[in-house]
Automatic annotation (TrEMBL):
Keyword Signal: yes
Keywords, in A-Z order: Cell outer membrane, Coiled coil, Membrane, Signal, Transmembrane, Transmembrane beta strand
Lineage of producing organism: Bacteria, Pseudomonadati, Pseudomonadota, Gammaproteobacteria, Enterobacterales
Pfam families linked: YadA_anchor (PF03895)
Organism the protein comes from: Salmonella enterica (Salmonella choleraesuis)
Coiled coil feature spans: 32-85
Protein name: Trimeric autotransporter adhesin YadA-like C-terminal membrane anchor domain-containing protein
Signal peptide segment: none
Entry's localization field: Cell outer membrane; Cell surface
Domain called Trimeric autotransporter adhesin YadA-like C-terminal membrane anchor: residue spans: 103-154
Any Gene Ontology CC annotation: cell outer membrane
Length: 158
């Protein structure tokens, strides 16, 4: 009878140990699974946050770059317009200075043209000899930038 009790006791202990080991392994498996899920969730959340931050930063820098490019294009356009006007203005004064006059006559007129880089102009002028020693001159030029230059002068000599 003692043997039966010992066998029953050993079987109960063995069954109990097996049950406990099985539940322990199930607990470890469950804990490991939940741990891996938590790690994966945290990693996904961190990746998503990083992606959102990168997208935001990229978007803001893209906006800044576009704004800067627009401003530089506007500035470049203004510089090019100013350059055209300046070149045309230089062509205008070149045209005025190129007008030939007849010094011996009491009244003379002339026409001149000028070019400087991408600017062109035409000019006309008159000169009137008010006396033997004095002259009056009036000039006007029109250039390719639609500028008009007007000049007048008086000269005296002896």
């Amino acid at each position: 009878m003692n043997t039966n009790i010992n066998n029953a006791k050993n079987e109960a202990i063995s069954t109990s140990n097996n049950y406990t080991d099985k539940k322990y392994q199930q607990g470890i498996s469950y804990t490991n699974e939940k741990y891996e899920q938590s790690i994966q969730y945290a990693q996904n959340a961190a990746d998503k946050a990083e992606q959102n931050a990168n997208n935001y930063t990229d978007n803001r820098f893209s906006q800044l770059s576009n704004q800067s490019n627009q401003r530089f294009e506007q500035l470049n356009s203004k510089i090019e317009r100013a350059e055209k006007r300046l070149n045309a203005g230089i062509a205008g004064v070149t045209a005025i200075s190129s007008i030939p006059y007849v010094a011996e006559n009491s009244f003379s007129y002339g026409i001149g043209v000028g070019n400087y880089q991408n600017g062109n102009a035409i000019a006309a002028g008159i000169q009137y000899k008010t006396s033997l020693n004095t002259n009056v001159r009036l000039n006007v030029s029109w250039d390719s930038a639609h500028n008009t230059v007007l000049g007048a002068g008086f000269a005296g000599g002896w």
